[in-house]
Amino acid sequence: MRDLELPGRSPVMATNGMAATSHPLSTQVAIDVIKAGGNAMDGAIAACAVQCVVEPGSTGIGGDCFALYAPEGKNKVIAFNGSGRAPAAASYEKLRELGVSEIERKTAHSVIVPGAIDAWAQLNADHGRMPLGELLQPAIDYARNGYPISQRVHFDFVKAREMVASDENLAAIFLKDGEVPAMGSLHRNPGLAKALEVIAKEGREGFYEGVLAQEMVDRLQEKGGLHTMRMVWMAPAPSAS
Prior knowledge:
Helix 6 packs antiparallel against helix 10 (190-202). The protein has twelve helices and four strands. The longest helix is centred in the N-terminal third of the chain and has 15 residues, at 40-54. It starts with 23 loop residues before the first helix and ends in a 19-residue tail after the last helix. By secondary structure, the chain is mainly alpha-helical. The strands form two sheets. It has a two-stranded antiparallel sheet. A two-stranded antiparallel sheet has the order 3-4.
């Protein structure tokens, strides 16, 4: 318990549920989903999708997803590992042949096959109440119509400016006239909105097997990556409890 005579945050109390994220817009979306009849899993997926838009330095649809979930508040906790794998061709021998002795952050070799969308789809199918496409609508709206740059996001953008500026695609999305968007300014990401719309309509297949996948593979191959369109769907790993 905090000292009420000093500045700080008081514990949150609620009767029907609560949500916590690092961004207020994501938290609000989670609460809205729960109020609309969704369960905790629905709220978490919707909030995570919004996070990919409003706090892009922390998470994104090109990353991973790890979840701990207790269905209906029961004691049994389900663990889900939604980490992505390296490209099938990225063997130790192949990387050594290419002269790669370490995986540097800015190289295509550091990019995995994203596990997040597959995880969202599987968790939604197994534990959700609301359709995945519906849960993605708030994120699509923020990406298309804009969200205000928060202090945390602005700080992260400034810190990563040099890296963002080094890639023409990143610079086109996250820099304005070569500069980081001002705190409080409205930022839009129409390309991400279109990608989320495809996922909302087509599910995981739209992300891993269609035009989106081809665009990602083409870009990564341009950068020297070993990624291909070849997909090997793995059976979900047994849940741990």
